[in-house]
Give the backbone structure.
Amino acid sequence: MKKLALLISFAAMMIFSGCASTTQGGAVGIDRSQFITVSEAEMDQSAALAYRQITAQANAKHVLNTDKKLTDRVRGISKRLIAQVGAFRKDALKWNWQVNVINDPTINAWCMPGGRIVVYTGIIEKLKLTDAELAAILGHEMSHALREHSRERASTEQMKDVGIAVASSAAGLGDLGSAALNMAAQYTFTLPFSRTHETEADLMGVELMA
Ligand SMILES: [Zn+2]
């Protein structure tokens, strides 16, 4: 009975979840259909909470937007990029985009779902980024959010868990079978997906920047 219930839930997931695209192609023509089961609201709620925590922590440590000139520069470049997001999805023009700079040597920048951006001073200062280079990085990170790669990734993980349970149950395998299949699934889904996402973000980012 357990096997049947799993099979039904797996089938229902395949039927009711959309194989659609979160964005329009733009000039770069990204039209890969995406398998998404996690809801937009669920992902947005989780991103909002995480972003609030990270910025509040930075604020408490007095490392949030401490250099006004640098913060203005990052926000200015972001604003020009945000004005172009309609090329991929009109609704994102109305997102509550937030851009913050954290004074930290980390060489990184990211954009959480819903347009929540953080740039670490490390990436700007250590790499001595020009405005154009900063725009390339921001465009890339923003594209991950526009394309909802996190939600897609979370959905894939969800599907994988159900798929593994179904497969190992059908094969009569116990926990050992699940572990082995989990590794296979990791290489089948996780890694190739990652590269696909990076390539999409590169292409879309270049278009936003242009
Ligand atoms: Zn990336």
The chain has one domain: 37-209. Helices lie at 2-16, 40-60, 68-82, 121-126, 131-146, 149-170, 175-209.
